[in-house]
């Protein structure tokens, strides 16, 4: 048996192919032959960090909610539709204001029209409300990530 | 909506527009049961003009556009609301063209509209 208890825990951790701490403690109570005096909860195993590191989860409770009209605008493109509409549209893009949840929808013939429709939307809503769009939240799809679009957003300070 | 009224899938764009129009006027959980349009305009909503999507309608024809003995209205399908005006968007059953009209009689209770499915201009493609 290992000399010190902490060393013993490390050894057992390695013997159990780097078992996680919760299961480790459970197992220790279940079986005979694991005679640990004390298990350190703060035991650090570098191999684990290297191989089991995960992405930090997004905070659930801190859902951002705008406090003013047009402070945050969500948008997304839906398409390609299987059937072309009467007017020849195959996609549509939605802009949703986070504060009022007011949705505007524009029909598109091609994805590239998103930029023009955004400009139209921006002009319309800013005129209607007298406020400015502060933030635009999208899924970073190819149509939003174009250089022209980014430059425009940059110019408007969005 | 398409299924309920037995319309062709080509009408999806009209459905998207109308759905958004109606959703903006429905209470939502995110706003504590207020409607988006209400929050947007800060005025009380009026929904007295809402009608059943895809229902049969008759649009009035102006006197100067017809002769004395011609019928005073044409049969249409209701396909949505106009932005900025109080008019309705209708599709003429005969010509399949979209028209806007404020003088409309709605037959909301009736089943699917005859004539929309037959020889549809886009159906043959």
Describe this structure in words.
The complex is a heterodimer of chains A (158) and B (125). By secondary structure, chain A is an alpha+beta fold. Chain A contains five helices and four strands. Chain A has two domains: 6-52, no CATH class; 63-156, Ribonuclease H-like superfamily/Ribonuclease H (Nucleotidyltransferase, domain 5). Helices cover 34% and strands 15% of the residues of chain A. The radius of gyration of chain A is 27 Å and the shape is elongated. With 125 residues, chain B is α+β, with helices and mostly antiparallel strands. Helices cover 18% and strands 22% of the residues of chain B. Chain B contains three helices and five strands. A five-stranded antiparallel sheet of chain B has the order 4-3-2-1-5. In chain B, strand 2 (73-81) and strand 3 (88-92) form a beta hairpin. The radius of gyration of chain B is 16 Å and the shape is globular. Residues 118-125 of chain B have low confidence and may be disordered. The interface between A and B is medium-sized, with 22 and 20 residues.
**Number of E-state strands of chain A:** 4
Oligomer: heterodimer
Order of helices and strands of chain B: HHHEEEEE
What sort of overall outline of chain A do the alpha carbons produce when their principal axes are compared?
elongated
The CATH homologous superfamily name of the largest domain in chain A equals Ribonuclease H-like superfamily/Ribonuclease H
Compact overview of the structure:
The complex is a heterodimer of chains A (about 160) and B (about 120). Chain A is an alpha+beta fold and about 160 residues long. Helix content of chain A is about 35%, strand content about 15%.
Question: What's the helix and strand layout?
Answer:
The complex is a heterodimer of chains A (158) and B (125).
Chain A: H1 5-15, H2 21-30, H3 46-52, E1 72-78, E2 91-97, E3 103-108, H4 114-129, E4 135-137, H5 147-156
Parallel strand pairs in A: 1-4
Antiparallel strand pairs in A: 1-2, 2-3
Chain B: H1 2-5, H2 12-23, H3 36-41, E1 56-60, E2 73-81, E3 88-92, E4 98-101, E5 104-107
Antiparallel strand pairs in B: 1-2, 1-5, 2-3, 3-4
